[in-house]
Amino acid sequence: MLVPRLFVAMGLLGFLAQQVQAAPLDDLAKTLSIALPDYVNRAYSSIPRSSRLLRTSTPKIEGTEIRLLTFERFWDRTQMKPVLIERVLRIERLQNRWVLVSVKSRFGPVPETVKDIGPYFNQLEKPYQGEPLDVSIRALPATDTSAGAFAAGVRTFLKDYDLGLVRKS
Q1: Exposed / middle / buried, residue 148 (Cβ in 10 Å: 0-12, 13-18, 19+)
Q2: What pTM was estimated for this model as a whole?
Q3: Which end of the chain is flanked by fewer CB atoms within 10 Å, N or C?
Q4: How far is CA 88 from each of CA 5, 7, 8, rounded to the nearest angstrom?
């Protein structure tokens, strides 16, 4: 009789610990999605013929991962091309500060309609209205982009967030 109660208690404690951890990460994710274009574009500006992050989606939190979509323009030889990138940021709390553990990115074309973007990209009011999309851009497998400019922008944001320099949402 004691063993089943012990399993229930352990399960409840695990659930409560997960909820306590998710609350601060939820606040961080919301603030990050708003501030991300400024931080990432600052990091991109140090690269010649760089990219530009235009919009970020509403974040989804799964454990210690923040999933979001970014709408960006990438320099391709002679012109900028619109691209949607699904980003998975793994962020952990270590010694009273947030640390970016990894960034996985999956590049894909911009769909022609908003509903094709997905359920959590509800901040984009209109589909892309520019030149016809380059259909040769296909979704690629997720790659580790933890060493890139995007990750550098996120790391700078996390430092500022921990120091209280970012207005929290």
Answers
A1: middle
A2: 0.73
A3: N
A4: 37, 32, 32
Amino acid type, 6 = L
Query: What tens digit of pLDDT does each residue of 27-63 get?
Result: 999 999 999 999 999 999 988 877 888 888 888 999 9
Q: DSSP characters for 42-106?
A: HHHTTSTT--EEEEE---EEETTEEEEEEEEEEEETTEEEEEEEEEEEEEEEETTEEEEEEEEEE
Q: Is the pLDDT of residue 81 over 60?
A: yes
- Total Cβ atoms within 10 A of residue 68: 21
**At 90, which amino acid appears?**
R
